[in-house]
Amino acid sequence: MYLGLDLGTSGLRGLLVSDDGYAVGEASANYGVQHQQTGWSEQDPQDWINACQSVMDSLRASYANEYKRLRGIGISGHMHGAVCLDEAGKVIRHCILWNDTRAAKEALELDMQPKFRALSGNIVFPGFTAPKLLWMARHEPNNFARVAKVLLPKDYLVYWLTGELTSEMSDAAGTSWLDVGKRDWSRALIDGSGMRPDQMPKVIEGSDIVGEVRGEIIADLSLPANITVVAGAGDNAAAACGIGAFREGQGFVSLGTSGVLLAAKDNYAPEPASAVHTFCHAVSGKWYQMGVILSATDSLNWLAETMGKTAQDLAKNLPDRVAGPADVRFLPYLSGERTPHNDAVARGAFIGLSKASNADILCQSVMEGVGFALRDCLEALKSTGTELPSVIAIGGGSSSHFWLQTLSNILNIPLHLPVKGDFGAALGAARLAMLGIGGRPSAEVMVPPIIERSFEPDPNYNAAYDTAYYKYTKSYIALKELM
Question: Was 94 annotated as part of a binding site?
Fold first, then answer.
């Protein structure tokens, strides 16, 4: 048995996976996010440990026989967070998360140094790790002076489990300290952000073995002896492993809290100006590119909460058939935007409201707005030479067939919905453990899911969606001057 742990923004999920690749049990535990000021987003790493202990206890209670046969653990997690440790390995302050925008000024300063884009292959976004540490140096100098090591969130869980200070390529690629082409830390980037090489953990590949679970953890969690932990992956790379996307032309669209359009790459071919992320894949010798929007299901959840409903209630009231775009446009920039705008202060808007704009129309326009933002990501990917003939749809938003058909129409490519099952980051993390510990080839482990249903673009509405998308792109430009 293998265990995949997925450290999400709102909770941790554990998935037990058998040697033949099937999920046999799961458990989860939630935790909160602290927002002390506008644009700030933090978590206490102790909450992750508490959640991990809770998940392990639940798995042991519900799947005792499988738990006893556990052989290895892989961990995925939300990227870019800064967990700062002192010389004794103690956490100095709460982790500054991926969706924290306080370091926008520092990110711009680093991005203006040509070497950052040239070596990291990416814009230095405010949510990345390097600008967070520069912000600490300026605003929390006493904390900054104590920093002995900087870990990414899931790497802190690896450290807790094993006592080893490591990271891996897919997560480290989102720090602005990694030479993404060479798959190693860059001394020039580390120096350029005011850090030291000794503050970086050892960086390895996602399926590489970190070590065994520490004896005291074995005892506390009643785990079997000699459980091996692999380095794991950032959440999107792990999700790509979970749906078998590691070759050129394979990819997925994720309708989660944020939205992601990801394409696996056989070669390193960055185009930073497009605001496309070019990162190392968790599979050795592979890379991936993705466009990221910051509010996907988050936008629908916001609308539902504002209207005193649930997102499920709003979605189920939409018609069975998609019949073209709504008259109302929605810009989903509730938390700023990454691809293609790199605009931390962008804000959302409804355009074209009338007395006829009821809950159904607003829900449809929110879904379309998220779709148009993902079309921005697709166009940005195309500008780098990346093609996606079709994608697999994952994430909570993929439960809405109306949303998937709308998205297929907007992107003008087929979307494939897997059969109900586990194909996300937790499965990908478990698969990396299977690779590293079992020594099996990637093609044997990273298999794609069985498809339940496909959504094809409706040619009757191509022109209407293209026109609506054109208006959407113009809306951002026009409203930016008013914000």
Answer: no
